[in-house]
Amino acid sequence: MLNTIEYINNLLSSSGATAKVRISRWALASLMFGVISALFFVGTGYGYQWSWWELGTAFTWIMPLSTMLGLMGFSLGFFFGFLKWRNPQKRGVVVALIGFLLGLSVMGTAIYWLNEVQKYPPIHDISTDIEHPPTFEAIVPLRADAPNDTTYGDQEKADIQREHYPDIQPLYLDMGYDDAYARALAAAKRMPWEQVVTSDKSAGRIEAVDKLPWFGFKDDIVIRVDTAKTQNKTKIDIRSVSRIGKGDIGVNAQRIRNYLKSVTNQ
User: Fold this and answer.
1) Which of 119, 146, 167 is the last residue of a domain?
2) 78 & 154 share domain
3) Which of 3, 94, 142, 147 is the most exposed place for a label (fewest CB within 10 A)?
4) Which positions, given as ranges, span the membrane (predicted)?
5) What is the CA angle 235-253-259, rounded to 5?
């Protein structure tokens, strides 16, 4: 490690007619650990997405390692600040500050997501109609290798959804079926989803796939448009399901909210 720090120091040191300005090794070490921690942290998700390692490896080894490296970068940057206060002649404030901030960012992000996991219930299948949720058809073959199937679940999961997501309810539109379906499809095409897989007006069904950017997790969406019991109204239901994972950190519920808002605001 010391050889690496010395090499970086030589690269960053000024040369020529003037004497070289040596940057503090503590500052360089902070920068090195900060950069490596950031690369490892970002690579946690993309490495899984690109099949470099399994999901368990990403969460059990890569992410904790990146957080520890971030702590090192943060601590060394902080320690350099103390040395700079004791000896103002020491060089490397900007270098140490970068390492300090990178380490802090990695640690802060890891702590944030750990806190988010604790806030949401361990369910990954959310529907506006929990009694008779919309069913998938075209999406089913695409989920052949997915750990989670498309079975909605038992009453216990429905009760958990009621408790944690009481706002997830069907949307009723004051318009006929044709206009409502056209609006529902247009909203689906506007969403930042990966693909609208199928749209069947005669069946009142729209199916789509969304891909999350970091880990590349794929979630599936089915939208059902149907005439409501109330005259001259149409009912829109939407269901969003993760292909992998016990919980979803609220992603599916938020996706439903965003879609229904898009339909309403047309």
Assistant:
1) 119
2) no
3) 3
4) 26-46, 58-80, 92-114
5) 50
CA distance from start to end of the chain: 58
CB within 8 Å of 33: residues ≥ 6 apart:
69, 70, 72, 73, 76, 99, 103
The predicted pLDDT at position 16 comes to 45
Q: Could you count the other beta carbons within 10 Å of the beta carbon of residue 178?
A: 11
Q: What is the model's pLDDT at position 21?
A: 57
Query: Can you give the length of the chain in residues?
Result: 266
Are the CB atoms for 81 and 48 separated by under 8 Å? no
**How many CB atoms are located within 10 Å of the residue 128 CB?**
24
Q: What is the pLDDT of residues 105-147, one digit of tens each?
A: 999 999 999 898 899 999 999 999 999 999 999 999 999 999 9
CB atoms closer than 10 angstroms to residue 194: 13
Query: Rounded to two decimals, what is the model's pTM?
Result: 0.84
Lookup: tokens for 236: 């829109």
C-alpha R_g of the chain? 26
Per DSSP (E only), the strands in 144-200 are 171-173, 195-200
DSSP 145: T
Give me the pLDDT at residue 90, please: 78
